[in-house]
C-alpha cells in the first residue's frame, strides 16, 4: 500500500545554505504525524515544499502515490493538502466567515459570469460554501464570531481560524505549522482535543510543533530534524529515548 | 418638478453630470484592480484612451451602432489589459505600477505617431451619441456589477489576493490568473468609459490621456475610500464637480487639490470612506432600532 | 547599406552625446534609487526637486550673474533643505501606513510644486542663457562641446563623491545598514530619521546639480520639465536595479545612449517611449534589474 504522503530525498538550497538535506519520510493515512527539531532545522521549509510554495532543488514529493513535485500551490491544495502558517497569515481585514469561505475556494467553480448573473446553480454553490464554512467554524468553536474581522480576534482564536480556513478545503491531509505557538495551557488542551476530533473526521494530520508535551501526547509518529537532516523517526517514546535526539536538543544548550 | 427637469436639461449641467458618470464607470474599473484586488495601476488613462480611439474610429469609419462601438472599445482595452497583465502581473507593487504607467505612456506616444488617430492634432468630428440617460444607466449597471462581484466566490478570491497573496495561493487560488482577470475586467470598464468619453467630448487628443489623467483616476478611487464603491462614487463626483464650483479660485485650485492629497493621506490613509462598512452600519442601526422598539413595548406592557 | 555606413561613422559621436545625456539622467536616477532603497517609496516629487534646481540656477545666472559653478552650488543649497522638508511633512507621518498612501502623498507634493512654480514663473519655457562658451573640441571625428565636457566632469565628480560617502564614511555605512533593516540599524544606535533625511539630502543635491546642467545643455527650462524626465529617470533606476547605486549610474547612462541611438536610427518621434519600452522589457526578463539582487519569496 502506498503512503498518503512520501518525501524522497527532498533537498532545498538557498544560496549556499542547504536548508533541507536529503530528507525522506512517510505519513500514513489516519496518522497524526509530527515533525520536530530545533529552530532552523528546516521543518517549516519542508511544509513549504509539500504545499508547493517552495520548489525543492532535488528529490520528490508523492501524494497518494502521485508525484506532485513542483506543482503550483493552488493545484496542491485542490488535490487535498491544506495548511496553516506559523506566522498567522489570515485575511486580516475580512470577516471570520469570509476567511473560511475563501478556504473553500478550490472546491467551487463559479466565476465572473455567475457572480454577475446570479444563476440558480451559483446561488446553490454559495449556499453550499456557506454551510461548509459554518461547519468548519463549528469544529474550531468559532461560529459565534463569524461576523468579526479576523484581525480583531485574540491570538489563540486566530490560530484556530487558520485551522478552520484550511478545513473548509475538505483536505485529505492537513498541515499545521506550530498550531499551539503562543497559546496558554488551557488553550493548548482545547486545541489538542480539536486536533483529535479532526482526525476522527478522517483527516490525516501532519504538524510542526515546539511544545514537546503537546507533540508527545498527540502524535502517532514523530520525525526529527536537525540542521536540515533527518536524525530520527518513530513513535513518541522511541524518539524520546533516542540518543541523537537528546544530543540535538540538549547538546545545543550545554554549549 | 419642472425645475428639476429644467436643471438636468441645462446643457452645462447635463454635460458635467454626464462626464462625471463617464469617469465613474472608468474609476470603477480601477476600483476593481486597485481597491479590490490590491494591484497598482498607474496607467488607467492609457486603457481609457484605447477604448476611446477604438470606439471613435469605428464610429467614424465603419459607422457601426454607437453601443457596439463603445462595447468594442471596452473589449479592445480589456484585451490590451490582459496582454499586458499576463507578463507583468508577476511583478508586485511599485514595479507593476511603473510598468502600467510605462505602458500607458507608450500607448499615448503611439497614438501621437499614428495617422489614423490624427496624431498630435487629435481626432475630431466624433458624433455626440453619449447622453446622460445612457451614462446613468451604464453607471448603475456597473455599480450593481461591482457589488455582485464583491459578494461572490470570484470577488472573494480577489480580496484574498489583496489581503495576502501567498496565503491566497495556499488556499487554492490561482493568483496570477485571477489578477489577470481582474485586470482585464478593470481595463474593460476603462475602455467603455473611454468610448463614452469620445462620444461626449467629440474630440480626442493623446495629451488628454497622459500620466496626470491616470493619477487623477487613481485619486478618484483612493481619496473617496479605497476598496469601497460608495467611496469611489464620492471621490469621483467630488473631484469632478469641485473644479466646476471652484472656478473663481482657478489658479489656486490645483494648489489646494494637491495639498489636500497630502493631508488626506496623513489623516485618512484609506480615504474618506475607506474601511467604512455600510452594510454593517445599516444592520447595526436596524438592530438598535428593533431593540429600542422591543424596550418601549416591554415598558408599555408592564404599564398595562 | 549606405545608411548603415553613416550610422557606423556617426556612432562614436552618438555615444558621446548619449553618455552626456545619460550622465544627467544618472544624477537624477541616483536620488530615486537611494530613497527607494531606504524607504521603498517612488519619490514622485524628486522630478520637481530637479526642476526647482534648474530654476534656482537660472535665477542665479540671470540676476546675480554668477558663473555656472556657483549656480550649481546655490541650486544644491536650495534643493537639499527642500527635499528634507518634503520628507518631514509628506512622507514621515506616513511611515508604516498603507503602500499606496505615501505614493499619493508624493504625487500631491509633485503636483503642488509644479503648480507653485507655474504660478511664480508662468507656464512657458524660459531660456537658459549660455554661461559656458560654445567652444568645440575635436578628437578624430568626434566633437565635444565645452558644455558636454563640463557636464561629464561635474557629474563624474559628484558621483565619485557620492560613492565615497556611501562606501567609506560612517554615515554611508549607516545608510546601507538602514536600507537592510530599520530594526537592526536602530538597535545598533543609528538614528533612522536622520539617516533618511540625509539620504533625501544627497539625492536632492544631485538632482539640483542635474537641473542646472540640463538647463545649460538644452538652454530651456519650464515648470513641467520634471514630470517626464523624473519618470524616465525612475525607469533608469529600475533598469539598473532599484536600490543599487552603481545600478542607477549604469541605468542612467544606458538610457541616455539608448535614447540618442533610437533617435539616430529614426525613432525620433518615439523618443520618450524608449525608456518605458526598455523598462518593461527588462522587468519582464529580469525583474530585479541589471544590478539588482534576486528576491527570495518569504513565507
Account of the 3D structure:
The complex is a heterotrimer of chains A (255), B (304) and C (299). Chain A has ten helices and ten strands. With 255 residues, chain A is α/β, with parallel strands linked by helices. Chain A has a six-stranded mixed beta sheet with strand order 6-7-8-3-9-10, sandwiched between helices. In chain A, strands 2-1-4-5 form a four-stranded antiparallel beta sheet, with helices on one face. In chain A, a hairpin with a 2-residue loop joins β9 (221-226) and β10. Chain A is globular and about 60 Å long. Chain B is globular, with a radius of gyration of 22 Å. Chain B has two domains: 2-273, Orthogonal Bundle (ABC transporter involved in vitamin B12 uptake, BtuC), CATH 1.10.3470; 278-304. Chain B has 13 helices and two strands; from the N terminus they run αααααβααααβαααα. Chain B has helices at residues 2-9, 11-36, 44-62, 66-88, 93-113, 132-150, 153-163, 165-170, 175-201, 211-225, 229-245, 250-267, 278-303; strands at residues 123-124, 203-204. With 304 residues, chain B is an all-alpha fold. A two-stranded antiparallel ribbon of chain B has the order 1-2. The longest helix of chain C is centred in the first third of the chain and has 38 residues, at 2-39. Chain C has a single domain (2-285), classed as ABC transporter involved in vitamin B12 uptake, BtuC (Orthogonal Bundle). The relative contact order of chain C is 0.19. The model of chain C has no long low-confidence stretch (mean pLDDT 88). In chain C, α5 packs antiparallel against α8. Chain C contains eleven helices and four strands, in the order ααααβββααααβααα. In chain C, a hairpin with a 2-residue loop joins β2 (136-139) and β3. Chain C is mainly α. The interface between B and C is large, with 45 and 45 residues.
Task: Estimate the mean pLDDT confidence of chain A.
Answer: 89
Largest sheet of chain A, order of strands side by side? 6-7-8-3-9-10
Proportion of β residues of chain C?
A: under 5%
Shape of chain A: globular
Number of helices of chain A: 10
Greatest interface by residues involved = B-C, 45 and 45 residues
The CA-CA distance between the termini of chain C, in Å, is: 56 Å
> Major sheet of chain C: size, sense and barrel closure?
2 strands, antiparallel
CATH architecture of chain C: Orthogonal Bundle
User: Could you tell me the number of beta strands of chain A?
Assistant: 10
Q: Which class of the domain at 5-80 and 171-254 in chain A in CATH terms?
A: Alpha Beta
Q: What name does the CATH topology of chain C carry?
A: ABC transporter involved in vitamin B12 uptake, BtuC
Q: How does the helix and strand content of chain A classify structurally?
A: alpha/beta
Order of helices and strands of chain C: HHHHEEEHHHHEHHH
Radius of gyration of chain C, Cα only, in angstroms? 19 Å
Amino acid at each position: 500500500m502506498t503512503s498518503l504522503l512520501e518525501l524522497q530525498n527532498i533537498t532545498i538550497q538557498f544560496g549556499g545554505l542547504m536548508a533541507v538535506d536529503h530528507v525522506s519520510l512517510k505519513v500514513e493515512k489516519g496518522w497524526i504525524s509530527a515533525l520536530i527539531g530545533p529552530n532552523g532545522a528546516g521543518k517549516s521549509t519542508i511544509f513549504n515544499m509539500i504545499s508547493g510554495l517552495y520548489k525543492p532543488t532535488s528529490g520528490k514529493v508523492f501524494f497518494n502515490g502521485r508525484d506532485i513535485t513542483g506543482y503550483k500551490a493552488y493545484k496542491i491544495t485542490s488535490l487535498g493538502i491544506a495548511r496553516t502558517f506559523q506566522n498567522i497569515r489570515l485575511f486580516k481585514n475580512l470577516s471570520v466567515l469570509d476567511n473560511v469561505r475563501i478556504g473553500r475556494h478550490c472546491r467551487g467553480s463559479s466565476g465572473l459570469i455567475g457572480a454577475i448573473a446570479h444563476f440558480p446553480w451559483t446561488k446553490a454553490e454559495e449556499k453550499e460554501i456557506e454551510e461548509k464554512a459554518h461547519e468548519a467554524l463549528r469544529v474550531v468553536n468559532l461560529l459565534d464570531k463569524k461576523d468579526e474581522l479576523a484581525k480583531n480576534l485574540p491570538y489563540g482564536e486566530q490560530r484556530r481560524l487558520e485551522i478552520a480556513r484550511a478545513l473548509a478545503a475538505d483536505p485529505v491531509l492537513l498541515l499545521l505549522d506550530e498550531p499551539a505557538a503562543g497559546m496558554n495551557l488551557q488553550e493548548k488542551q482545547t486545541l489538542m482535543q480539536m486536533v483529535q476530533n479532526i482526525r476522527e473526521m478522517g483527516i490525516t494530520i501532519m504538524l510542526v510543533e515546539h511544545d514537546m508535551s503537546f507533540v508527545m501526547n498527540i502524535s502517532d509518529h514523530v520525525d526529527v530534524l536537525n540542521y536540515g537532516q533527518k536524525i530520527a523517526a518513530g513513535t513518541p517514546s522511541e524518539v524520546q529515548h533516542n540518543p541523537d535526539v537528546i544530543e540535538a536538543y540538549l547538546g545545543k544548550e550545554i554549549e | 418638478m419642472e425645475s428639476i427637469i429644467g436643471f438636468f436639461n441645462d446643457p452645462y449641467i447635463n454635460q458635467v453630470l454626464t462626464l462625471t458618470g463617464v469617469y465613474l464607470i472608468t474609476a470603477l474599473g480601477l476600483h476593481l484592480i486597485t481597491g479590490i484586488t490590491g494591484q497598482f495601476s498607474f496607467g488607467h488613462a492609457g486603457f481609457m484612451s484605447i477604448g476611446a480611439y477604438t470606439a471613435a474610429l469605428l464610429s467614424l469609419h465603419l459607422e457601426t451602432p454607437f453601443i457596439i462601438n463603445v462595447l468594442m472599445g471596452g473589449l479592445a482595452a480589456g484585451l490590451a489589459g490582459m496582454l499586458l497583465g499576463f507578463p507583468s502581473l508577476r511583478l508586485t507593487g511599485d514595479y507593476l505600477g511603473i510598468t502600467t504607467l510605462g505602458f500607458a505612456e507608450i500607448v499615448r506616444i503611439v497614438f501621437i505617431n499614428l495617422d489614423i488617430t490624427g496624431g498630435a492634432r487629435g481626432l475630431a468630428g466624433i458624433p455626440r451619441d453619449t447622453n446622460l440617460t445612457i451614462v446613468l444607466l451604464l453607471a448603475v449597471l456597473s455599480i450593481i456589477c461591482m457589488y455582485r462581484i464583491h459578494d461572490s466566490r470570484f470577488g472573494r478570491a480577489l480580496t484574498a489576493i489583496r489581503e495576502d497573496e501567498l496565503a491566497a495561493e495556499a488556499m487554492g487560488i490561482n493568483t496570477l490568473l485571477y489578477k489577470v482577470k481582474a485586470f482585464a475586467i478593470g481595463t474593460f470598464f476603462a475602455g467603455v468609459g473611454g468610448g463614452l468619453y469620445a462620444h461626449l467630448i467629440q474630440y480626442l487628443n493623446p495629451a488628454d490621456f497622459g500620466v496626470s489623467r491616470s493619477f487623477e483616476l487613481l485619486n478618484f478611487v483612493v481619496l473617496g475610500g479605497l476598496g469601497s464603491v460608495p467611496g469611489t462614487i464620492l471621490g469621483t463626483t467630488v473631484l469632478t464637480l469641485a473644479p466646476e464650483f471652484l472656478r473663481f479660485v482657478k489658479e489656486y485650485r490645483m494648489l489646494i487639490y494637491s495639498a489636500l492629497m497630502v493631508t488626506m493621506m496623513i489623516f485618512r490613509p484609506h480615504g474618506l470612506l475607506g474601511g467604512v462598512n455600510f452594510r454593517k452600519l445599516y444592520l447595526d442601526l436596524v438592530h438598535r432600532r428593533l431593540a429600542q422598539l422591543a424596550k418601549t413595548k416591554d415598558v408599555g406592557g408592564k404599564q398595562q | 547599406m549606405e545608411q548603415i555606413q553613416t550610422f557606423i561613422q556617426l556612432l562614436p559621436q552618438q555615444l558621446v552625446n548619449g553618455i552626456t545625456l545619460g550622465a544627467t539622467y544618472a544624477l537624477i536616477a541616483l536620488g530615486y534609487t537611494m530613497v527607494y532603497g531606504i524607504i521603498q517609496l517612488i519619490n514622485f516629487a524628486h522630478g520637481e526637486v530637479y526642476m526647482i534646481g534648474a530654476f534656482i540656477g537660472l535665477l542665479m545666472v540671470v540676476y546675480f550673474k554668477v558663473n555656472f559653478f556657483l549656480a550649481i552650488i546655490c541650486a544644491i543649497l536650495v534643493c537639499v533643505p527642500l527635499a528634507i522638508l518634503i520628507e518631514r511633512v509628506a512622507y514621515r507621518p506616513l511611515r508604516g501606513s498603507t503602500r499606496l498612501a505615501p505614493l499619493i502623498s508624493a504625487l500631491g507634493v509633485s503636483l503642488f510644486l509644479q503648480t507653485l512654480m507655474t504660478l511664480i514663473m508662468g507656464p512657458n519655457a524660459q531660456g537658459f542663457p549660455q554661461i559656458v562658451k560654445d567652444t568645440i573640441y575635436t578628437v578624430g571625428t568626434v566633437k565635444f562641446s565645452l558644455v558636454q565636457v563640463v557636464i561629464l566632469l561635474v557629474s563624474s565628480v559628484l558621483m565619485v563623491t557620492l560613492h565615497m560617502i556611501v562606501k567609506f564614511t560612517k554615515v554611508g555605512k549607516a545608510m546601507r545598514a538602514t536600507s537592510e533593516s530599520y530594526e537592526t540599524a536602530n538597535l545598533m544606535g543609528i538614528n533612522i530619521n536622520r539617516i533618511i533625511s540625509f539620504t533625501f539630502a544627497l539625492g536632492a543635491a544631485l538632482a539640483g546639480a542635474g537641473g542646472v546642467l540640463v538647463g545649460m545643455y538644452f538652454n530651456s527650462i519650464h515648470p513641467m520639465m520634471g514630470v517626464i524626465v523624473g519618470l524616465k529617470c525612475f525607469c533608469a533606476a529600475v533598469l539598473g536595479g532599484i536600490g543599487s547605486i552603481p545600478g542607477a549610474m549604469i541605468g542612467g547612462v544606458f538610457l541616455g545612449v539608448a535614447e540618442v541611438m533610437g533617435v539616430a536610427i529614426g525613432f525620433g518621434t518615439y523618443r520618450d517611449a524608449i525608456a518605458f519600452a526598455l523598462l518593461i522589457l527588462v522587468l519582464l526578463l529580469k525583474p530585479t534589474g541589471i544590478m539588482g539582487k534576486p528576491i527570495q519569496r518569504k513565507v
